[in-house]
Amino acid sequence: MAKLLSDRAKIIPLLGVVLVIAVGAALVIVLTPGSPGATSSTSSAPTAVSPQAGGKGGTVKVAIKNYTYQPATLRVAAGTTIAWTNEDSTDHTSTADNGGFSGGASFDTGTINQGQTKTATLSKPGSYPYHCSFHAFMHGTIIVK
Ligand SMILES: [Cu+2]
Q: What is this structure's pTM?
């Protein structure tokens, strides 16, 4: 009786270990191809789930046309480069109201000639109202998230 119990005591834990290994291997097989697909379920914030290094968010274009910034208000992810293209025959600038110093929290393109494109990269979240140095009535806003 005591011997029978001790035999079972040896076999049952052994079966348990085999079962745990089998289940564990099955989970690894199931979960491994599933993990890249998991990003699609959080598609509402593609920049947040992007694992790419550097945090660079690519380039977003703003047209300067008829003395207006188009779009006037732009929402971008931190690290995005904004590219202003002057489609007017007059010179313009895109100058942040907060001064134009660098460091990812401000910008000043300087003069953008007709047909020319100038860029600025905003790396710090915040709201950046800007204007044209030559035409005080021209206003735009970049919102960095
Ligand atoms: Cu202007």
A: 0.61
